[in-house]
Each structure stands twice: as C-alpha cells, then as structure tokens.
Amino acid sequence: MENFEFVSPTQFVFGRGAELTVGRKLAEQGAKHVLLHFGGGSAVKSGLIDRIVASLDAEGIAHTSLGGVRPNPEITLVREGVSLCKTEGIDWVLAVGGGSVIDSAKAIANGACIEEDVWELFETKRPNASVLPIAVVLTIPAAGSEASKNTVISNDELGMKSGYGNDFQRPKLAFMNPELTFTLPEYQTAAGLTDMYAHLLERFFDDVGAVPVTDNLNLSLMKTIRAEAPRVLTEPDNYDARANIMWAGMLCHQGYAGCGRHEDWATHGLEHELSALNPAITHGAGLAVMFPAWMEYVYAENPARFAFYGSEVFGLTPTGDIEADALSAIDETRAFFASLGMPTTLEELDVCEEDIEKMIPTLRANKGEAFGSFKKLTMDDARAIYRLAL
Ligand code: NZQ
Ligand code: ZN
User: Fold this and answer.
1) Mode of pairing for the β-strands spanning 134-138 and 92-97
2) pLDDT at position 266
3) Which of 48, 66, 136, 145 is the best mutation target for the ligand 1 pocket, counting ligand atoms within 8 Å of the beta carbon and taking the most?
4) Ligand located closest to 45 CA
5) C-alpha–C-alpha distance, residues 62 and 47, integer Å
6) What is the C-alpha to C-alpha distance for residues 295 and 264, in angstroms, rounded to an integer?
7) Which phi and psi (to 5°) does residue 161 adopt?
8) Could you tell me if 382 and 270 are in contact, meaning their C-beta atoms sit under 8 angstroms apart?
9) pTM value?
C-alpha cells in the first residue's frame, strides 16, 4: 500500500428537499453574497433556481447570477465570473448543475483570489491555497466534482481542455437531492454512469499490487453501478435507484476508491483531447469508446488483474487461461457501456483517422511525453490506442 494524503472537507446534505436548506446552511457558514452559477437552462426550466433564490432571500443572503455554463465548460465565462467576484465582493460561489457548472465554479473561486489570469493555474499547475469557498447543488451524478479536488476547463482559443487539481477547491457543502435527477435525458444519465464507472477503472488498474481495503470498496461500487444502471435507465423516476447512483458517483471520485494506489488516468487524458477537438462530445461517451481500447492495448502488462476484475464484477468463471479471462473481462466492459446506449467507436463520435494527429500536441502539453501508470504510454502508444478505437 503506497503512502497517501487525503482530505475530504465536504459536508453533504443528501435526500429529498436538500436544496431547500441551501440558504440556511450558507447562513450558518457566514455567507453574505454568493455568485449563483448555473448551466444552459435545465435548472431554470425546472424551477430549481427559483427555489434556491427563495432560500437565499429568506436568509438575507445577496446573490449575483451567472448562468450559461456549457458542457465542457469554457474559460471565457470563467473569466467573466472572476471579474464579477472581484467587483461585487462575492464571498461564496454556489454551483447549481453538474460537473461542468461545478468545474467552472471551482475555476472562478480560484481566479477570484489571485492576481494572474486563472488559465495560468491550468498551465503551471502551481498550488493555490487562496480559493473562495464553494457550495454545490448537484443535478447530475457523473463527474464527481461535488467533492473532488479537480476542475477541467476548455480553452477554445488554444484548442485545449486541461485539468487543475487543488484540495482547497473541494466544495465545502454539497446538496444532493436524487429527485433533481429525474429530468435527466437518458443519454446524460448513461454518460454519467459511464464516467463514474471509469473513475473506478482509472484507480483499479495501475502499477500497484492488491490493496484490499481500497480495491474491495472500488469493486463494490462497480457492482452497484452495474446493478442500478438498468433501473435508472428504465425507471428514470425511481428514487432509490437514482439515490444509489447519486451517492455512488460521489464515492467514485472523491478519493477513497484510490487511497494507497498510484492510479492511472491515461484514458481520461485521451478522452479530454476528444472533447477539446469537439466540445459537443460528451465526456462519458468519449470514455465509453476509449476505455475498452486502452484496456486491449495494455492488458498484457498484468492480465491477472483483468481476470480478477472480470470474475469479481461480471461473475466470469475462471477458465484456467488468464489471457482469455482478461479478454473476456474487456469484452464485458465494452458490452456494459453499449448496454447503456453509449457509443463503442470513434466513428460514432465523428472522429476519424486524420483527427488523431491534431490531438497529439495538446495531449503532450497536458500529460507530458510519458503518461499512465498501469503501462507507461508514449505519444506513439496514444496514436495506437486512438486507432484501436476508430
Ligand atoms: O446546461 P444544462 O441546461 O443544465 O444541461 C445539462 C448539460 O447539457 C444537463 N443537465 C444537468 N442536470 C440536468 C440536466 N438536464 C436535465 N435535468 C437535469 N437535472 O446535462 C448536460 C451535461 O451536464 P454536465 O455538467 O456537462 O455533465 P457532467 O456532470 O457529466 O460534467 C461533465 C464535465 O465534467 C468534467 C468533464 O470533463 C466535463 O467537462 N469532469 C470533471 C471532473 C472533476 N471535476 O473532478 C472529473 C471528470 O472525470 C470529468 O473530467
Ligand atoms: Zn471522468
């Protein structure tokens, strides 16, 4: 078991009506003026923003609204938010939405407290302890940003999508009402399931041996997601299924599922280039295509790990041929993503052979010459994995 540091400062308010307590909980924390940050329309249409505004008003908390965050959030709106925070004297950032809104909020919360342009944090990755406190009302279980230390932001001008990790940007408060996810389009539910499952795969497959306390937690989350996935897809307003998935999405990415392991993250790196190439590509859909391709490319480093995963999660009976068992586990993974309605090839995402070279320079800028941990990958390996995914 490797050494690790782990902090998770988030207070969770989970269940029906959670969002109605936003004002009271923020008042308890001393919030005076919040930036109310949301997406392209779903939270306005559902009446959620009105309920949150009423909850803030009831406590006398001032608020300034900034909506319009797009999926694969972009730096321009982040800069607008930073400027609002500085001119309006904002002391909390309240994100209402999914990973995109929360990530945009995290970037704003950093930018509001520093002198330099916030994109520089994404370039230099320099530590920054000065961040406005963040609260979140989650509307889609997927990215796990409601408790994670990461933010991922696109810069269309540079054609990049880059991450920035910082424990100080972990949300202080997360309001999680599963009922808010009943309105999700099926595709977004499925992409969210894929993303959270991928967060477990990234942690399970690395160059560290067994870490049973972490691995068993991880495997139990994988099994839960597999079992609940058909329920949320066929019964979108099944509260218990939605609740299990919402809590799972947080547990998949807040950190516990990787403690004592190195983790890999090559596949997320490969996917982020797809979303940078075309911001219309949904993160989870890109992962559904890239993960099985990555698995096929690297499994020979440690087929026993794949065989173990296959027997634990998919109930595959060992055949005595570890290699065959590993390949069956990969087939099952692909079939699981396909069963959710996710794509299985880059072609389905309108990405072709000629696009591969366009993604390599930004992949190199984001990940360096060598990346991944289960198998150290070069840019040539990345090209080969993209080709396998075509
Ligand atoms: O913008 P609106 O109108 O709200 O619509 C959103 C958006 O179109 C819609 N939606 C959200 N909640 C809804 C809803 N529609 C109806 N009812 C609801 N209750 O869903 C669409 C997708 O939202 P988005 O926030 O983009 O989804 P997700 O949570 O999957 O976030 C994806 C982003 O998170 C990043 C991804 O790269 C991507 O940019 N990630 C962030 C991570 C982190 N911060 O730790 C880790 C992840 O690996 C990931 O990279
Ligand atoms: Zn992800």
Assistant:
1) parallel
2) 98
3) 145
4) 1
5) 19
6) 12
7) -130, 120
8) yes
9) 0.98
Q: Report CA(39)–ligand 2 centroid distance (Å).
A: 18
What are the tokens at 153?
Answer: 């932001």
Among 142, 376, 159, 371, which residue's Cα sits nearest to residue 270? 371
Neighbours of 253 (CB within 10 A): 27
CB within 6 Å of ligand 1 — which residues?
A: 39-43, 71-72, 97-101, 103, 139-140, 142-145, 148, 150-152, 180-181, 183-184, 188, 192, 195, 253, 268, 283
Q: Measuring CA to CA, which residue among 339, 345, 316 is closest to residue 226? A: 339
Structure tokens at 58: 């009831």
Measured in angstroms, how far is the CA atom of residue 312 from the centroid of ligand 1? 30
Burial of 126: CB neighbours in 10 Å, binned 0-12, 13-18, 19+: exposed
- DSSP assignment letter at 14: E
DSSP for 360-387 reads HHHHHHHH-SSB-SSS-B-HHHHHHHHH
**176 closest CA partner among 66, 99, 250:** 250
Atom of ligand 1 nearest to the CA of 151: 44
Q: How far is the CA of 99 from the centre of ligand 1 (A)?
A: 4
Q: Alpha-carbon distance 324 to 82, whole Å? A: 53
Could you tell me the distance, in angstroms and rounded to a whole number, from the CA of residue 199 to the centre of ligand 2? 6
By C-alpha distance, which of 314, 136, 102 is closest to 225?
314
**What is the mean pLDDT for each group of 10 consecutive residues in the chain (390 residues)?**
97 98 98 97 97 98 98 98 98 98 98 98 98 98 98 97 98 98 98 98 98 98 98 98 98 98 98 96 98 98 98 98 98 98 98 98 97 98 98
Rounded (5°) CA angle 188-148-130: 130
Structural tokens at position 128: 């920054």
Q: Is 106 exposed, middle or buried (0-12, 13-18, 19+ CB in 10 A)?
A: buried
pLDDT of residue 96: 98
Give me 355's structure tokens: 């696009």
Please tell me the predicted confidence (pLDDT) of residue 163. 97
Q: Distance between the two ends of the chain, CA-based, in angstroms?
A: 37
Using most ligand atoms within 8 A of CB, pick from 36, 77, 103, 254 the residue to mutate for ligand 1. 103
Query: DSSP H helical segments within 125-265, as ranges?
Result: 186-204, 212-234, 239-253
